[in-house]
Design brief:
With 157 residues, the protein is α/β, with parallel strands linked by helices. The chain contains 6 helices and 6 strands.
């Protein structure tokens, strides 16, 4: 699951999706039953074979809004090495359209396995208020469960 770049709050607290009104962790709780301390939640994501990262390793951005990311200073994380190290990866879920657009613009997508699905999920950010929590939850659940079903089918289960 890829976000764009951590918010100021997330950077200050050294936790992904630290803003109390961000829907990410409540969605993970509903889908996977993830709960507890930040460390516990991260470990539970790993147990569910979910990686959590951002498209950008760094960028100048006044504030926390994705619209304020300065593309001229944006530097992507090293996806080539990550994808080589994780050849079983089958789904990239972008947390919002900006994450997907940054990925397409800055990442060499030739290294991505053709069978890997890419889906754009509704942003869990409180700034994206056009969709209520239940709508976000339904979209995230559907994409994650479809991916899990496809993985089981490929394994012959």
């Amino acid at each position: 699951m890829l976000g764009s770049l951590p918010s100021r709050r997330s950077i200050a607290e050294q936790q992904y999706y630290a803003h109390p009104q961000n829907a990410f962790w409540p969605i993970m709780r509903e889908i996977f039953g993830i709960d507890g301390s930040y460390e516990d939640r991260c470990n539970q994501l790993v147990d569910h074979r979910v990686a959590l990262w951002d498209v950008l390793a760094s960028s100048e951005r006044p504030g926390s809004m994705d619209a304020d990311i300065r593309l001229d200073s944006a530097r992507a994380n090293d996806f080539d090495d990550f994808l080589v190290a994780h050849p079983d990866l089958r789904l990239i879920a972008f947390n919002g359209r900006t994450a997907q657009q940054l990925f397409q613009k800055l990442v060499n997508i030739q290294t991505i396995n053709a069978s890997m699905r890419q889906v754009v999920m509704p942003s869990t950010s409180p700034a994206y208020a056009a969709m209520p929590f239940l709508g976000k939850l339904d979209a995230w659940r559907e994409s994650i469960l479809v991916s899990a079903s496809e993985q089981l089918a490929r394994r012959g289960r």
